[in-house]
Amino acid sequence: MMPPFELIADHRCLCGEGPLWDNRNKQLYWIDIVRGAINCYSPETGQLQHVNTDQKIGAIGLAESGTIIAALKSGIFQVDLSTGTMVHVLELEPDKPQNRCNDGKCDPAGRFWIGTMSDEGETGQGSLYTLEKDGTFSKKLGGLSISNGLAWDLGNKKFYHIDTPTRQIVAYDYCNESGRISNGIPVVEIAEAEGVPDGMTIDTAGKLWVAHWNGGRVSRWDPGTSKKLQELFLPVSKVTSCTFGGDHMDDLYVTTARIGLSEEEIGNQPLAGATFVFRKIGVQGFPGTRIKNDHYITPYEI
């Protein structure tokens, strides 16, 4: 029988997202997009820390040097959680001030992938980029509406991506050496009655775990057969993302949101915006790869 979920802290985000497990320090990081907050939680001590960036935040990554790289509304920043110090290092889409970052992840080679979307709800305005070792951005995809979940397969041959309004997970051929992607083919489609796909992770069996916005669940899929294998339900509708963590990487952490809910809906979903964990779920994930290019960035103060 699947163990029940637990609430990891008495904290509610407006839009919790981007859970990230720090395997070195045994801590969970996640963000609140709307409030611009970076959250850090220690399961061992129960301590919860917040750093406010004062602008919308789309994703974070852990760098080899120990710093946090944050994709914010106004660009890419290095963030020191111990002091709250933020250093602006790069701009992203300065020609599209209406856009913001949305979801990102480090690939197996140590590149930071970052998606964008219109902050005003316009379709087709987003793109997907990688932050290269020379401190420049390489555009991978364009014409996206809500660039979202990312994952790479076990052999580093496939890259999986979600553009939320399409309701699909698309698999691309992936070159780990160059970061090039090609030949996108839909491998999963989420039924309309189950919400839309949001954040995503992969387990050591090569199966994809997908959060359902307005679907109240996380689902597990076989991308080779396009079959749904499992579902974990939560008492909230807006499930945003998931990641594996814990000493044995077999705890599934899940973020959620309460933004856009009416007072009545929040009354019916008092845990909306909380972060949950399903412990020892019977499969394992991978320790996240760290960004390997942060030493190539020359920060400048703003």
Written description of the protein model:
- By secondary structure, this protein is mainly β.
- It has a single domain, classed as TolB, C-terminal domain (Neuraminidase).
- The chain has one helix and 24 strands.
- Strands 1-24-23-22 form a four-stranded antiparallel sheet, with no helix packed on it.
- β22 and β23 form a beta hairpin.
- The C terminus is likely disordered.
Short description, anyone?
With 302 residues, this protein is an all-beta fold. The chain is built from one helix and 24 strands. Helix content is 2%, strand content 49%.
Q: What overall form do the CA principal axes indicate?
A: globular
Strand order of the largest sheet: 1-24-23-22
Find the count of extended strands (DSSP E, 2+ residues).
24
Instruction: Give the proportion of residues in helices.
Output: under 10%
Q: What is the terminal-to-terminal distance?
A: 53 Å
Oligomeric status: single chain
Beta fraction: over 45%
- Please report the number of helical segments: 1
Main β-sheet: number of strands, strand sense, barrel status?
Answer: 4 strands, antiparallel
The total number of structural domains is 1
Question: Which fold name is given in CATH as the topology?
Answer: Neuraminidase
Provide the structure class. mainly beta
CATH architectural group: 6 Propeller
Low-confidence stretches: 298-302
